[in-house]
Amino acid sequence: MTRLDTWKILPHEIAFALFWISGTVRLVLGHGWGGDAVLFSSLLLVSGALILLSLRLPHRRWTMCLRLLYFPLAINLTYAAIRTAVPAMTTRRWDLALQKCDETLLGGHPSLWLQSWVNPWTTEILSFCYLTFFAGLLLSWIHYYRRDLGLARLFTAGFFTVYGLGFLGYTLVPAAGPHLDAAFAARYTVPLDGWVFTKWNAALVEAGSNRVDVFPSLHTAVTAFLLGFDRRFAPGRFRLWLLPTIGLWLSTIYLRYHYVTDVVAGFALAGFALWLTRYLHAPLAQPPSLRRHEPAASL
Q1: Distance between CA 222 and CA 230 in Å, rounded?
Q2: How far apart are CA 68 and CA 153, in angstroms?
Q3: CB neighbours (10 Å) of residue 285?
Q4: Is pLDDT of 255 > 60?
Q5: CA 36, CA 133: separation in Å to the nearest integer?
Q6: Helix pair 260-281, 95-106: axis angle to 10 deg
Q7: Which residues contact 34 (CB under 8 A, 6 or more apart)?
């Protein structure tokens, strides 16, 4: 029995509850009841209902499976809603503050320095690495959800805690990123030309971005968590994904999607989630009352 077995509400459910509650309150206070506030509160109610169902029928595996499988759907609905919800919460954008953080940390901006290294081959390779994010997510879900329920629950607890806290970061520090911030983007003098993967990636980011999804970098946080989790529970997958993941981290800066501050925050978030899964996976200490009745070990 592990510590996770004692948690009636799982960490990722708490993280998303914080996001949905804070988002609903901010939207209702600013614009009244409706739209995204209704969506966030509905997602929260469904999550709560699944928790109650699981607690009432604790020996039915399908109730826990429903709880775990709910969140892949919930994050997609939530991410899409953030595009309209955050502008309704605040008009402030933190791009300038994040740029100043980079300047304080590094004395400048690496994406500008990297212009001297820009060429179609590098852009194509790093665009491919950036695209592996989506394949990595899907294959990770399939891999861990097909294994035993305990490991799937541990994976879900860490993985979706990253997303819940990351989405909260989007609402608290909304920013567009270097490529969308008009003043910063004007400083680029070298275009990112490439071929098939470059065009696919650019089109996907343009269509899929919610325009406030910068801090923290979830491309960094999610893939760092997956890599760390694989290193412990699936070493073969760790070796397979190591190089593409490192390329993905580099691409967040090279392709001008993130500031270094976002990436650092992403690594910190992944580190927290990996610590959390290690803590939750530890076996429960034996109660002192039981230890007192154990026979003494022979010398």
Answers
A1: 12
A2: 7
A3: 8
A4: yes
A5: 27
A6: 90
A7: none
| Whole-angstrom distance, CA of residue 4 vs CA of residue 284 | 9
pLDDT exceeds cutoff 90 at 299: no
Cβ neighbors of 84 (< 8 A, separation 6 or more) are: 35, 36
- Residue 296, pLDDT above cutoff 50: no
Q: Pick the range with the lowest mean pLDDT from 141-155, 201-215, 277-291.
A: 277-291
Please answer whether residues 120 and 238 qualify as being in contact, where contact means their C-beta atoms are separated by less than 8 angstroms.
no
Q: What is the pLDDT of residues 156-209, one digit of tens each?
A: 999 999 999 999 999 999 999 999 999 999 999 999 999 999 999 999 999 999
Gap between the terminal Cα atoms of the chain = 29
Q: Enter the tokens of residue 298.
A: 């022979």
Concatenated DSSP letters of the chain: -BGGGG-SS-HHHHHHHHHHHHHHHHHHHHH-S-THHHHHHHHHHHHHHHHHHHHHSTT-HHHHHHHHHHHHHHHHHHHHHHHHHHHHH-----HHHHHHHHHHHHSS-HHHHGGGG--HHHHHHHHHHHHHHHHHHHHHHHHHHHS-HHHHHHHHHHHHHHHHHHHHHHHHS----TTT-HHHHTT--S----SHHHHHHHHHHHHH--S---SS-HHHHHHHHHHHHHHHH-HHHHHHHHHHHHHHHHHHHHTT---HHHHHHHHHHHHHHHHHHHHHHSBPPPPHHHHTTSPPPP-
- Higher confidence at residue 139 or residue 291? 139
Q: Which residue has the tokens 């919610």?
A: 210
Residue 213 Cα distances to 66, 88, 96, 124, 155, angstroms: 28, 15, 15, 23, 23
pLDDT of residue 285: 75
